[in-house]
Design goal:
The protein is of the alpha/beta class and 340 residues long. The chain is 33% helix and 25% strand.
Amino acid sequence: MSTKCLRWGIVSAGKICHDFVCGIKVLPPSEHQVVAVAARNIDDAKKFAFEHGIAKSYGSYAEIAHDTELDIVYIGAINTKHYEIAKLMIDAGKNVLCEKPLTMNKKQTESLMKHAHEKGVFFMEAIWSRSFPVYKKLAELIQSGVIGDVQVVNVNFGFPLEHVSRVSVKDQGGSGILDIGVYALQFAQYVYRGAKAISFTSTGFLNAQGVDNSASCIIQYENNKSAVLTINTTVELPNEAVAVGTKGTIRIPQFWCPSKLYLKDALHFEAKLPESKDTFNFLNSVGLSYEAAECRQCILGGKKESPTVTHAESLQLAEQMDAWRKSVGVVYDADSQEYN
């Protein structure tokens, strides 16, 4: 790999992949280039390539897996395909950034981690939130002790998403917990990094397809710490995350892609997003550039995982999502299978 430019391959040609490529465009072209895209349909790949000025397009994922000019692939396919595609890419020796949720369950996640370790490739779950400047400021403030010892984390996250099949249809891996619950879980994990969870209590409701559309959980940790998380795919919630300490509170609106942080009810930190002339499908998606930059730094530094989202943290998130969705009655065919 060039020490200067990371050459990306894009796996799938949907909305999030569009946003990711547009995010990369705000980064220096001397550091990042998208050179190939693959889709299940060659026409979709060619259209995507034309729209984004990408040189190569493939009509199968196997073809891009064996493109020797790539340094890393970004996987933005539907949740149910993450395991299959990521394993294909890893076994072909590719560094991988795979959208969240990384897989459908902990067993699949463990399998991918094993393959990544054996192949010696960089592998990261695309929890883009962690790469935003606000998260770095959050960690600094907690470590500084300005709000004292954090005792409570409260997160609520909800949008009307029942019309979105990847969220509401079981055969497509639908699940509010997998789609947006992962964001709430990762925030609690980030605030309480290293803390041991001692209990996990959860509840929720299912739609007509047997997919969770409303769920809540309480995680209790050692030293009387707790996290209360609520997600909903039928209504819009306030969508903020709060960390409460013995000396004060940090509040982060739009916590999954934030630009502002409030400390003790006053705006304390603001990081304006990079400017872009492109049209994005999702809120603040230009911030996907932050995780692309993180991947480059890790690969250039010889790292096989990112310190912002470690393999151990991805495994813990998978385990917690397994417990949460199973407690409300969401079980997939993938749960009964074994993976090597």
